[in-house]
Amino acid sequence: MKLRTIITGNIALVLLATAALPTMGAAVIYGAKAGSKMRIEGTSNIHDWQVESPFIAGMIEAGTGFPTEPGQAVTPGKVEAKAEVIILVRALKSIEKDGKPYSDKMDEVMWEHLKETENKKIVFHLTELTVKEAAKTKDAPFVCEAKGDLSVAGTTKSITMPVSILPLPDNKLKITGNVSIKMTDFKVEPPSPKIALGLIKTGDEVKLIFEWMLGQKKAAAAAAK
User: Fold this and answer.
1) How many CB atoms lie within 10 A of CB 181?
2) Residue 195: which CATH number?
3) What are 112-122's pLDDT values in tens digits?
4) pTM of the model
5) Residue 73 has what pLDDT?
6) DSSP alpha helices (H): ranges in the chain?
């Protein structure tokens, strides 16, 4: 009887001690905000080209080690983070170098090659985030490396790219980055539309450049998600 009492008492003490231990901080949810930009740059035998979307949807769930404050003390290494980045294919429009609209016809050709009818979105799922360098000042970004799965035109490939995370006032984040990919890796045939003087041949490699603005969601809204 005494042995049972001692064991029961020890179990109770362990449970109380466990409850008293500090728990990991809850993840902070950030949602996409206005002011974002997704740009794709490519080449052709006629001239270089670029398309842009002024919208980037999605969210980030920032966990332990994720830089959320300007100049925050962060140890380089892997951090806890989940993210989904979404670009609507129809939001991508061709532009001149000065930002003016370029060609509705080029937009239609691009959407067709991206199989927009069946695949409305370009999606990136973050699988791993590593802080490479902590911010040198409160106004400087954290230099990171992101790994994840990029889905384009119905094909998904794993990619790795450098990203910079800049915490801003009012619980906001600015995340920038770029990566070069080949269209054929995603089973996208480089467009080659006919013109009066011949055939436009588009280069296979394109560069994706993004600037993603996010804002911290309120606790109630984040809990309901």
Assistant:
1) 19
2) 2.40.128.110
3) 999 999 999 99
4) 0.83
5) 92
6) 2-20, 104-113, 219-224
